Amino acid sequence: xxxxxxxxxxxxxxxxxxxxxxxxxxxxxxxxxxxxxxxxxxxxxxxxxxxxxxxxxxxxxxxxxxxxxxxxxxxxxxxxxxxxxxxxxxxxxxxxxxxxxxxxxxxxxxxxxxxxxxxxxxxxxxxxxxxxxxxxxxxxxxxxxxxxxxxxxxxxxxxxxxxxxxxxxxxxxxxxxxxxxxxxxxxxxxxxxxxxxxxxxxxxxxxxxxxxxxxxxxxxxxxxxxxxxxxxxxxxxxxxxxxxxxxxxxxxxxxxxxxxxxxxxxxxxxxxxxxxxxxxxxxxxxxxxxxxxxxxxxxxxxxxxxxxxxxxxxxxx
Length: 317
What we know:
The chain is mostly helical. The protein has helices at about 30-35, 40-55, 60-65, 70-75, 85-95, 100-110, 165-180, 190-205, 230-240, 285-295, 295-305; strands at about 130-135, 140, 150-155, 160, 260-265, 280-285. The protein is built from eleven helices and six strands. Helix content is about 35%, strand content about 10%.
């Protein structure tokens, strides 16, 4: 089978993605299979996962990729303009196009709004980098301080904040997003930062003696096999280092820090107890995958009260 070199793996067009065979290797999505198993960059993994989605929606895409008449990059440029009504015509026009040509085709079909030109002179702040010739001809340079934040009103309720931050701030922000991924799955910047503000202000309130009476310690619920005590949670969190412990196809653990859940390795229904040895950390995706593997996808779909489309057969042809 001849495959466009950019496809890299023919698994986009041989049914691997459509049959979700990556799940058998422990990956919850084709994106993470490409990222972890194939070692692709995030951008390459995104393009391949998007291409698989488009193949499922428009099967004719597979033939174009297989025959080398369309590259993944060109296909991705068209992803927002392809519809059930126009895809045959658009794909026929796109055959053999470069990425740049596909971009022009996309804006022809769906023009983008033209932004208004804005030209603004920025004032030189005090202490900014200036060079003054010295007596010997050398230069004395004063480094500019960090630029202050810029706030622009957008509506009576909204402001646009532009601020320069350090790499350490971004690392802390990503860790905060992971810690708050249950409450804010989308990792919205404002909500995550405001949550930090709330904690800081509450801590200062405690220092000032402004807190209400602390709540009593929760009573251990004896006999409740689903209840995981705080002591067990602390021990499991330390043992698993706050990461998902699901084994992946690349021989490593998942390691995700997002939407972590305390999972009974042996289910409660089968006699599993809420002990340190039987509790482990799993991300939400792998906890669901484990339940689907053991109890079935249809059962879990009914349990969650949603409809689940029939999964394509995994039988090799």
